[in-house]
Amino acid sequence: MRDRLTYRGLLAHGGQDTILLHTIKGEAGYKIVNFNVMPNHPFNHDQESVIKIYKTSQETKDAVVDFSDNKLLGVGIYKQLDEVTLAASTLVTFFDNEIVNQDIYVTCHDFVGSTRALNYYIELERIKLSEHDAMVTTLKSIRNG
Predict the structure, then answer these.
(1) pLDDT by residue for the chain (145 residues), tens digit each?
(2) Are the C-beta atoms of 10 and 40 separated by less than 8 Å?
(3) What is the 3-state secondary structure (H, E, C) of 34-102?
(4) How far apart are CA 21 and CA 128, in angstroms?
(5) CATH of domain 2-144
């Protein structure tokens, strides 16, 4: 079983969305194949936002990016400053070799206005896991939690 699932949402500063992926036996694995971000009011406001995808729910929704964090699955950064002639920029990084079989969490942090929202689009590939692979992936998720 290999097919694609898409999720999209809009997160304001300090927000967190949960993408429900878990199953009873954990035999469906998922990996990110596409991740995009875009503001909900392009070119209207100053905006400097960081949106992140995690394996676990986050108490703190900050803008710290640490690639050594084994709970981090992806990061999107969007920047636009109106008072300066600066083109809007977007940078997205995701770890496409990570396979999860539990829920994932998307967080947003905005530096400028604290009220700016950012759209996200995530495309996941669903992979059928063997019983052994499902157990290993689930144990890794529990250990990361």
Answers:
(1) 469 999 999 998 889 999 999 888 888 999 999 999 988 877 777 788 899 999 999 998 988 999 999 999 999 998 887 666 556 678 888 888 889 989 999 999 988 766 778 899 999 999 988 887 777 777 776 666 5
(2) yes
(3) EEEEEECCCCCCCEEEEEEEECCCCCCCCCCCCCCCCCEEEEEEEEECCCCCCCCEEEEEECCCCCECC
(4) 13
(5) 2.60.120
Query: Distance between CA atoms of 36 and 48, rounded to whole angstroms?
Result: 15
Q: Is the pTM of this model over 0.85?
A: yes
Whole-angstrom CA distances from 114 to 15, 47, 48, 50, 144 are 11, 9, 10, 12, 30
